[in-house]
Amino acid sequence: MLAASWAPLSPAERAVAIEVLTHGPVSRTEIARKLNLSAGSLTRLTKPLIESGLLIEEPTPVSAPTRQGRPSQPLDIVADSRYFAGFKITADMVYGVVTTLKSDIVADRAVPLRTRDPEYVADLVREMTEEFAAAFPRLAGIGVGIGGRIKGFSRAVASVFLDWHDVPFGEMVEERTGLPVVVENDVAALIESEAWFGAGRGLDRFAVLTIGAGIGYGLVIGGRLVRAANDGQGIGRRWIIDPNGPLTPDGVRGSAVSLLTIPSIRYQVRAATGRDHTYEEILALADAGDPPAARVMGEAARALGTVVAQIANFAMPQKILLAGEGVGLMDIAGPAVREAVLDNRDPLADPFVLETKVSDFNDWARGAAVLAIQILVLGRPKE
C-alpha cells in the first residue's frame, strides 16, 4: 500500500491550495483578491497544482463571462483523487473513517480493543487500513488522533487514557502499512477539522471546548491553531471553577475536570445514591427532577457557563464551539449555562456565538484524516 504523493508545495502554492480546498469551487478572481495576487502570478501558481491532479478547472457556466468576454473557469479540488484514513483511539475502541480530499466521510468502522498494548493497537489499525484500502485503492495517508501529548506528529509522549509513555506510534503504523502517517492530539485534530471545514470556517478567532472523558480546549487565530508546550497535558485538571466544588478522583477540587467530565459526574451521582448510572441515564434523571442528579448537573451547568465566559473574556473569539460526548448537558440545562455566561461577562462585552455540536467518535476520526490532508498533501506550514 504505497501512496502516490504530490510534490512539496511552496508557501504560495499552499495558500492557493488551501483557499480552493476550503472554499472551492472558487473563481480565479476571488482567489487573486483574497491572496493579493496578480492574474499572472495566480496562473503560474495554479499550473503545477492542476498538472499534479490536485486541482481541476470546473466547466464554466455560460452566464459567467469575465469583463473581457473570456469564460471564467472556477478552480476546485479533485475530491476523489485520493482518500485518507482517519482513526480515533479511545481507551476501549478504535474508530476509523475514510474521507475524500474534501474530508467527506465515505466509510467508517469501529472495533473494540482487547488490550491497549501499542503493538496490538498498531496491528489493529493496519487491519482496518487494509480493509479500507481494498475498497478505496487510492488511499494516500493515515491520520491518528490520541488523547494525550504528541511530539513531532508521530510519538505519543504521554496518554493517560491509553497508559502510553513515549510510544513511536506513527513509525509503528507506517512500518505496518507502507503509508505516511500523522499522529496528533485528538482535540487538536478536531479543532483543525472544524476550523477548515466546520463551525470555524472563515472565522479569524475561533475557540473549541470539548467535554467528555476529559476537557479539551483550543484557540484558532488567523486560521492557525495556537500551539503551546503543554498541549495534550489536560489543563482542565487545574482549571479551577469553584474552590469549594466537588472532590473527585481525577482533577483538583472544583476544577473543570471535577465538575464537567463524564467520569466525575458519574462518580458524584454514585457517591450520592450508591448506584451506578450511565451519563445518558443521569441526564434523564436530572431532566425529570431527581434531586441528586439535578444537583450534580446544575453544578455542571454553572461550571460550563463560567468556563465559556472565561474563554470569551480572555480569548475574545467570534465563536465558541462546544463538542464532545458530554454536550448533552446543553439539552437539559442550556438556559442555566447561558445564564452563567451572562453572569460572568460584562454587559458591554462584544457578543460571540455559542454553538453546540452533537458529535460522535467518527467526527474525531475525521479530524485526524483532515490533519493527514493538511500535512501530507499541503505540507506543514512554516512556523
UniProtKB/TrEMBL annotation:
Which InterPro entries would you find in this protein's record? ATPase_NBD, ROK, WH-like_DNA-bd_sf, WH_DNA-bd_sf
Query: Which range is the signal sequence, renumbered to this chain?
Result: none
According to the lineage, what is the superkingdom? Bacteria
Q: Which SUPFAM superfamilies does the record match to this protein?
A: Actin-like ATPase domain (SSF53067), Winged helix' DNA-binding domain (SSF46785)
Q: Which Gene3D superfamilies match?
A: 3.30.420.40, Winged helix-like DNA-binding domain superfamily/Winged helix DNA-binding domain
Family assignment from sequence similarity: Belongs to the ROK (NagC/XylR) family.
For this entry, the protein name equals ROK family transcriptional regulator
